[in-house]
Specification:
The protein has 468 residues and is of the alpha+beta class. Helices cover 55% and strands 18% of the residues. It has 3 domains: 152 residues, Beta-Lactamase; 65 residues, Orthogonal Bundle (Helix Hairpins), CATH 1.10.287; 157 residues, 2-Layer Sandwich (Heat Shock Protein 90), CATH 3.30.565.10. The chain is built from 11 helices and 12 strands. The two termini are 53 Å apart. Bound molecules: adenosine-5'-diphosphate (ADP).
């Protein structure tokens, strides 16, 4: 980063300095040219006002030779380029007349040249100006002067620039290094802090600098990620603790029962009765283990759903027929209201599991009255309502019942054999079908569970079928 800063800094400085150098050179040469053109006007005046005799030009020459700073040499040529008068010093320049000078003069143009006389260190500027009288080219006046001061000025300027560039390089490197360190230091902090965070200290957070820049945004994003990790770690730990507890309790109870059974000699009927009870408890444990496996798989999206188009009304009808026997045993009326054909895309087994869990709950938590199951078709969704007249769920508990292992009243649940996983599984199945589940309940009045599932649109059934 520092190198990039210095490189950009240096390139910009070089471009600016080169531009200034060229501008200065151009300006200085322009001034010299202006000076030579002014002097040319003088000679022109001498040539036009005085008689053609050369002593006037000689006098002018003496005049200019006396000048210290900008002495110049001159030569007057005729229209063909033949010298009419050459001042002292001009010859020594070893100037060779070029074709272009005459051609320019014919076109009324001034020619500017830079020559480097042999044996001299300074270059010379030569300006050739045509003189026209009555529209006819009569003479060409050539003036030459050294460019020592221009070179000197330019060389001073160059030296100053080099010093300046050196300072720029040192300051740029230093500034670039400080800037790079400053802008990258949060990354170092983020890296070391993120490295130090493990599953043991997930409650720690990165501290933003309060600048509101991209680095702070990165810190916030990482913090949000840690929050998510922390909550899912917490959920996993709770889940494992709850699961072990729920498995341990019945196993301990069964062991106790077995010990009591073995404590003395018993009748064969007694053994049979106890073994049948054990089988029942094993089935219950097996069911719970299956539920746990399903839920932990659903967390890592390992459960694959076999989505097919199916008739939701028929699925509910079959389930109601199955539960009718159980309802009759409990002397509860089970009513069914499925007036129309409702098509959805779903996994048949999972949907059966969802509605079994809900109807099982309705039966479990209703001691008298009725259960009413209805299937409706709305604009975009199918709505299944399972309404019971059971014990209901207190308002403050209604949100929590979908949590794993959550039971409103553990003692009442234990009697019915539930462990608090049924609604968690139901909620996951609904979510996996892109639907939603709601509960409305009044304590001692009853509960209504509402399940919304996306409806299968008839015209898109073909594509859906292909997908599934
Ligand atoms: P469980 O196996 O204990 O029934 P669920 O997850 O199915 O677990 O239900 C969670 C809790 O929600 C239950 O313990 C019960 O207290 C309450 N609940 C569920 N359905 C009903 C219902 N229809 N009527 C009253 N309470 C209910």
């Amino acid at each position: 980063m520092t190198l990039w800063y210095v490189f950009t800094f240096l390139i910009s400085a070089l471009i600016i300095c080169s531009f200034l150098y060229l501008r200065l050179k151009h300006q200085l040469l322009k001034e010299i040219d202006q000076f030579l053109i002014d002097e040319t006007r003088e000679i022109e005046r001498v040539l036009s006002h005085e008689s053609k005799e050369t002593h006037f030009l000689m006098r002018f020459e003496d005049d200019v030779m006396a000048r210290k700073y900008y002495p110049f040499f001159f030569q007057v040529l005729d229209q063909n380029g033949k010298p009419l008068y050459t001042s002292r010093g001009f010859q020594e320049l070893g100037y060779v007349l070029k074709e272009g000078v005459i051609a320019n003069a014919i076109n009324k143009k001034v020619t500017r040249e830079e020559i480097r006389p042999a044996g001299r260190r300074t270059p010379y500027r030569v300006i050739s100006t045509p003189v026209y009288k009555h529209g006819k080219l009569t003479e060409i006046i050539q003036l030459a002067t050294h460019l020592r001061f221009v070179r000197k000025n330019l060389s001073h300027f160059r030296n100053n620039i080099l010093i300046g560039l050196f300072v720029v390089l040192v300051l740029g490197t230093l500034g670039g290094w400080i800037l790079a360190r400053r802008s990258l230091s949060p990354i170092g902090y983020i890296a070391s802090k993120a490295r130090s965070i493990t599953s043991e200290n997930l409650s720690e957070r990165l501290i933003p600098r309060g600048t509101g820049d991209e680095m702070d945004e990165l810190i916030h994003t990482i913090n949000e990620m840690i929050v998510r990790l922390e909550s899912s770690f917490k959920r996993m730990a709770e889940f494992t603790a709850d699961a072990s507890h729920e498995l341990k309790t019945p196993i301990c109870a069964m062991r106790g029962e077995a010990e009591v059974l073995l404590s003395k000699e018993r009748e064969p009927e007694e053994y049979q009765e106890s073994l049948a009870k054990f089988i029942e408890q094993f089935d219950h444990l097996n069911q719970m283990i299956n539920d746990l496996i399903l839920l932990s798989k659903s967390d890592t999206t390992q459960v694959e759903l076999k989505m097919i188009p199916l008739r939701l009304d028929l699925l509910i009808k079959d389930l109601c027929n199955f539960f009718q026997v159980l309802a009759d045993q409990k002397e509860i009326t089970l009513e069914m209201d499925t007036p129309e054909e409702v098509n959805v895309i779903g996994d048949k087994l999972r949907l059966q599991q969802l509605f079994t869990n809900l109807m099982d709950n309705a039966l479990k938590y209703t001691s008298k009255g009725s259960i009413r199951v209805s299937v409706e078709k709305n604009k975009d969704s199918a709505l299944v309502k399972i309404k019971d007249t059971g014990m209901g769920i207190p308002k403050e508990e209604q949100e929590k019942i979908f949590k794993r292992f959550y039971r409103v009243d553990k003692s009442r649940s234990r009697e019915t054999g539930g462990v608090g996983l049924g609604l968690s599984i139901a909620e996951w199945i609904v979510r996996a079908h892109h639907g939603r589940i709601e509960v409305e309940s009044e304590l001692n009045q009853g509960s209504t569970f509402k399940i919304y599932l996306p409806i299968e649109k008839r015209n898109s059934s073909k594509t859906n079928l292909k997908k599934s």
